[in-house]
Every structure is written in structure tokens, then in C-alpha cells.
Amino acid sequence: MTERVVDVAIIGSGSAGLNALAQTRRAGKTFVLINGGEPGTTCARVGCMPSKAMIQVAEDYHRRTHLGKYGIDGHEAMTLDIPEALEHVQDLRDTFVDRVLGSSTDDMPEDLFIQDHARFIEPTLIEAAGQRIRAGAVVIATGSRPVVPAAWTHFGERVITTDDLFELADLPASMAVIGLGTIGLELGQSLSRLGVDITGFDQLHVIAGTQDPEVSQTAIDLLGKEFPIHLGQAAEIHEEGEQLRVTAGAHSVVVDKVLCSIGRAPNVAGLQLENLGVPLDARGLPTFDPNSMQVGDLPVFIAGDVTGDLPLLHEAGDEGRIAGYNAAHGETARFRRKTPLFINFCDPNICAVGLRWNQLDMETTAVGQIRFAPVGRALIMGKNRGVLRVYADKASGRLLGAEMIGPKGEHLAHLLCWCIERNLTVGDLLRLPFYHPVIEEALQAALYDLYAKVDTKNEGGLIELARLPD
Ligand SMILES: Cc1cc2nc3c(=O)[nH]c(=O)nc-3n(C[C@H](O)[C@H](O)[C@H](O)COP(=O)(O)OP(=O)(O)OC[C@H]3O[C@@H](n4cnc5c(N)ncnc54)[C@H](O)[C@@H]3O)c2cc1C
Ligand SMILES: NC(=O)c1ccc[n+]([C@@H]2O[C@H](COP(=O)([O-])OP(=O)(O)OC[C@H]3O[C@@H](n4cnc5c(N)ncnc54)[C@H](O)[C@@H]3O)[C@@H](O)[C@H]2O)c1
To answer: Where do the coiled-coil regions begin and end (predicted)?
Structure first.
């Protein structure tokens, strides 16, 4: 078998791999991009984008339940054509996939874009599509896939994952959602709002990975009003004629289909990472430096969901950039990672920023809080539900983190995240302008609550305004 030589080999043409490719191209290096499976990225094909399209349809349709309050007639008679709604989601999905392909691999010659699963022979020797590639450096960016217990695969098309959901031409009458993490909650709520009789299960006592007890309980209370949620027991599935019986402890329901959303596993099967010659953990993953993405001291870098850490689009992008930069420059430069930001697009949004509740030292931390019930703009929107909790270092007032369930949480979370990135204190934040009436006033109220509990106060007489020199 002949050996081709390139500067950089990138395995996986998802979001991480394509960002690594951009860095390689920018450095003017020779490369090969190898992708097994469907190109077009998980994000555009089966992830972020179709899920948000489905959430949008579900939210818009759900909005009719508010309209009676305003005296808008006819809302009760509104109906939704599910096949048409699903076709709309698929059309949008196709647009996003086409955009990705059009700006990445569509016009790449076959020798640069190899469509096959790759495997390692040596750390810098890869085999794919019957050829061997000797690379100066390798980027592993093979993503992740939905976890489905082997016993559940026997139920065929009645147990689906997000790889299947956006392919459906119609929705079943009833579904169980097993796993109420990010995917289960976002899509379980949407499916419920689209008219599917949903029952949710999670083995934990929390949903959406929340940690702050106030947020956790509020989330369970609010989401639990939309569909039954059973927590604290692992769910099991049994055949019940044509249908499936899902059982968790004392709770049991018979459904047409199950959405299995119990997590995603890194795609390492078949890569033969054992040929890297470094120790692998129980998941088959090597250790790596999250600041350089380097695997051991090899010229091998790993990025995106395959790391098993931070499986989020913006993190995959950053990791791809770091891995690609280092692979292309023959360096192991270390880059500072950004403040953690997590957004669950269920309604109200559930978000976490910076340090999580379980990472805080409660001896040195102050916690501020606002409930959305009395917030003017939230009330006007008919979305005055939820709670926002902000954390600061008690002595310095420096903002540390936040967790929330609330309206427009996606935006509040960004503001807080950017302020933490800039090392701002709660006093600094209160000196920023707040318009009226906006949802940011909820944040302002939480900050006042927090400000009262920190030791460092703003100087100059007024909390909100910096004093000019005399
Ligand atoms: C339903 C859903 C909703 C989501 N929503 C959001 C969201 O709203 N916000 C957010 O930040 N994140 C979201 N995510 C997560 C986000 O989509 C992922 O973090 C991101 O897409 C991961 O990108 P990646 O490049 O690591 O992997 P991928 O895009 O999966 O790319 C990996 C590529 O490697 C290929 N491959 C696998 N094995 C091999 C091999 N042996 N050889 C060659 N190629 C191989 C695969 O075919 C694939 O093309 C969501 C995920 C899902 C499933
Ligand atoms: N908005 C977003 O950013 C977004 C949206 C969707 C997905 N994602 C990414 O995709 C990843 C995977 O999402 P996910 O929701 O599949 O995983 P997850 O890890 O977020 O949640 C899985 C849940 O399944 C539960 N579970 C596991 N086995 C179970 C069983 N037998 N019975 C009952 N419950 C069980 C777990 O306790 C957990 O709460 C996430 O980590 C996230 O990073 C992000």
C-alpha cells in the first residue's frame, strides 16, 4: 500500500474538524480531511439546528394558549398540520446542511476529502479508503453518537434517538422520553406542545443537569406542569403488544415510541486509538491537555465531542481551532478556555454560567436571587415564571457564576458570561445602563440582592454612577 505524505490529517468533518481545517489552510499547510458517515455536521444535520427549528414551531403553536387572555378570538380552533410542520423543520435542516457543505467539502477534490472511516496504524500513520496517509500531525474530531442500551435496540423503530426524530414524516400519539438532560427536555417539551402525549423519565432527581437547588426545584415544577415527569429511577422498556411499556419504579406508561436521550458517547470505535501507544480510559479515550488539545506528547490533537468533555458547539469550534493551529504550526501552544456557558432552549430557558453550584465554596460565596413573577416585562410577555440566581465572591464582589430558569435566559446568560470573562464585580455591573422595561431588569434586581451581601461596595456616594473627579 502506498503512503501519501501530508502536513496535517484531520479525521472528522464536523464542526471541530472544519475549524481545524480552517487553521490548517490559513497556515498554508497540506492536508487531508477524512470523514466516515454523513458529512454536513451533527449540529446542522441532527443537532442544534433541526432541534431549534422544532422548538420554534412548538413554541409558536403553544403561544395560542395565551391568546385568549388578550381577547384574541379563534385561538381555540387553531390546529397544526404535523407532517407540514415536520417538513418545515426538514427543509430548514436541509438548508443548514447545504450551507455547511457548500462552504466546506462540496468542491473539495477526492484526494483532499476522503469519505471513509479512518483508523490509526501508528500515531502519525492513518489508513482510510484503502490508502495510507503519513501526516506531520493528526487531529481527531470524530464527534459523538447517541447512547442506546443494547437491550433496547430489539424494539426497532419504536425506540428512536435524535438521529431518527428529524426524519419522521408524522408524530406518534404517545411517547416516553427517557433521559431528561438537554435533549430530552428540549425535545420532550416541544413534542408535548406539538400534541404528542409525553411522559418523561430520568434516573436523577434533577432535570437538565441543574445543580442549584432553587433552580432545580423550580425547573421540575414548571416543566412538570406541561407533561408528567418521573425522577429518581432508571427507566426500563418492555414489549406491550405493538406498543412499549416504560417503567421506572412505581411509574409505568404504555407508549407508541420512546425517545432515548440518555447521553452521547464519543466516536472512537474502529479508530484503533490503542495504536497511539498511550493509555486509554474506560471509554477508550486518551488523556489530553484541554488548553492545547494535545494527546500525551504526541503530534496528535483531539477536538469536539469525541473528547467526552464539553459536548457543545462553541466548545467544539474552539477546540478545533486550537487543535488545528497546533497541528498546522508544529506547536503545542496552550490557549485559555472561555467561561463555561450552558443554555437549554426549553421554555423557560435553563442556563448555567461560570462556576456551578457544586463548585462553589459557600463560606466565601454570596448568592443573589430574583424570581421572575413580579418582573414587569416578563409579566407583559406572559412569561413571568422562573428564578435567576447569581453568585459572587463575598469579599471582592467578583461575579463567579449563575444558574437560572427564566424567560430570555439565553440572553441573560450571555451577558453574565461576558461579565465574568471581564472579571467584573457586582458593583461594576450595577454601574452599567439598564433600559426600562426589559428582561435585563430581572438581572438588575438579582444584582441588587447580591450587592447587599458582598463586602466590597462602590465608592463615590451612588451605587449606580461613578463620581467624576472634583
Ligand atoms: C439534538 C442535539 C441538539 C444539540 N443542540 C445544541 C445546541 O443547541 N447548542 C450547542 O452548543 N450544542 C448542541 N448540540 C451539541 C453539538 O451539536 C455538538 O457538540 C457538535 O456538533 C459536535 O461537533 P463535532 O465536530 O465534535 O462532531 P460532529 O459534527 O459529529 O463531527 C464528527 C464527524 O466525524 C465523523 N466520524 C466519526 N467517526 C469517524 C472515523 N472513524 N473516521 C472518520 N470520520 C469519522 C462523523 O461522521 C462526523 O461527520 C446538540 C446535539 C444534539 C445531538
Ligand atoms: N442546548 C444545548 O446546548 C444542547 C442541546 C442538545 C444536546 N446538547 C448536547 O448533547 C449532549 C447529549 O445530550 P443528552 O440530553 O442525550 O445527554 P445528557 O447527559 O444531557 O442527559 C442524559 C440524561 O439521561 C439520564 N439517564 C441515563 N440513563 C437513564 C435511564 N436508564 N433512565 C432514565 N434516565 C437516564 C441521565 O441521568 C441524564 O440526566 C449534551 O451533553 C449536550 O452537551 C446540547
So the answer is: none
